Amino acid sequence: MKKIIGLLWLAVLASGMLAFSGCEEDLDVERKNPDVNIGPVLDRIIAIVDNRSGERRSGEPVVLKQIDAQGEEVISEIGQFTTDASGEFEVKLQTGYYRAEFAYIPGTEPDILYDFEVKEDKIYYQVLIEDPDGDFDPHDVTVTLLDAKTGQSMAKKDFYLYQMVRGGGYDSLGHYTTGEDGKLVVEDLYKGTYRIKAAYYPQTRAAAYNTFDFAVGKKEANAYSFTVEPILFVDDFSWWNPSWNLINTSGVLQSVKVAPWYTYNPDGTLANGGTGKGQRCDMPRQSDIDKAIASNSEWKDEYIERRQALDSTGLQFTATFGILLYTGNDKCLPCWAMSLGSGPITGGIKTAACPEAPATFNMKVSVLANPGHIYSGNEWTIEANFRNNTDVGIWIEGGGYFLDGGQQVTHMVFDNPTIYDTPPISAPDHWNKIEAMVYGATPQTQILFTGGDLTARMRLLLTNIRLEEAY
């Protein structure tokens, strides 16, 4: 993409740059949020403003670098910052020359480089940015949806349209339906990054929708074909909201995340106590919701949201052992953990049925598994109280079978390698992808995941459960 360098040194502003001259005014006059407390160490305030609309660009990712006076060499990388609701961020900067890098369109590579000078007696700096391509007019975009099974266009097919916003989120633009030819012209879309979500079967759960991203602009084709796959069920934790970690079920705000393990009863409600040390009870029990509603607690809406989010997965918890939810971190994916004690074990994590599937069909099952490793104290460890070799058991209920050596069976055990195998298979933070084919599945078919050995103490981690029609 084209680069623009704004060599607008504040010390030598030309008379033609009057739009920028306001940033020399008194701080309290210029800023739209003059009541912000300016700390003694964060002594520079950078505001990002759209030169065309005058909009303060909140949630704007900004890469800041120190450069030489000629703007030819980068001296040091200051870091990446994100503007607040006022379109500003604060940073401690020495006097000198700096470069701010932006992507005018969220989600794209930086296409604006803005150079400026920091002076000793100046606190506030306003950076004016503008689309380097001058692409300000709306575009009409042709969307075509294709059936993955037949290759034909999908007439009268519903889909949802979203636009990426700064900060990485998406704003909903509404619900659309293709015509008899499987096409639809969406009018008046401005330059940006967009997303379409569509389901092969109408009543598919939201997590299993097909997702397609595309770009709109005068340099783009603005005509796209998307192939919709018959995905039946997905649980990839897209329903999880990280901000939920801040409140426990007593309504107490907590600033430190400690041991984010959650224990569930077979009916999906949060269990009392639990096996995780420092367990956080961020998914409320029904009793917590009832209590919050009765007392008109400020958390009642959020409690209901969390409960509905978990219920929306369609998962059933049928185990005689603990089902834990691990919210994950930068070293480990969010995952379900099955913590098995000693003695006979039954049940596990069961997927929902797929009532709109064909009367009989073949179904591909996949899941990521990890044999009980945890990330604690900045290193991976094997939990000493659990078995290190935890294979994955998959059961079929409601119709269908596996082929095992030519025999039709409804239960199979799949290898889940660990670093303690001989030879070592993978690092402890490695997730093993387990795949299986269910033949003769029906709309009533459900898949049950459990451990391979139901008589020994173990912990098994599972994530990214996915069922899709094979064709």
Notes on the protein architecture:
The structure is a single chain. The protein is mainly beta and 471 residues long. Helix content is 6%, strand content 40%. The protein has helices at residues 27-30, 286-294, 300-312, and strands at 5-7, 44-50, 61-67, 74-82, 88-91, 96-102, 112-118, 124-129, 139-147, 158-164, 170-177, 183-189, 192-198, 210-216, 223-228, 231-235, 261-264, 316-317, 322-326, 335-340, 349-350, 361-370, 373-376, 379-382, 392-397, 402-404, 407-409, 411-414, 432-441, 446-451, 458-470. The strands form eight sheets. Strands 16, 17, 19, 20, 22, 29 and 31 form a seven-stranded antiparallel sheet that branches. A five-stranded mixed sheet has the order 1-7-6-3-4, with no helix packed on it. It has a five-stranded antiparallel sheet with strand order 18-21-30-25-28, with no helix packed on it. Helix 2 packs antiparallel against helix 3 (300-312). 27% of the residues are buried. Residues 1-36, 251-263 and 273-282 have low confidence and may be disordered.
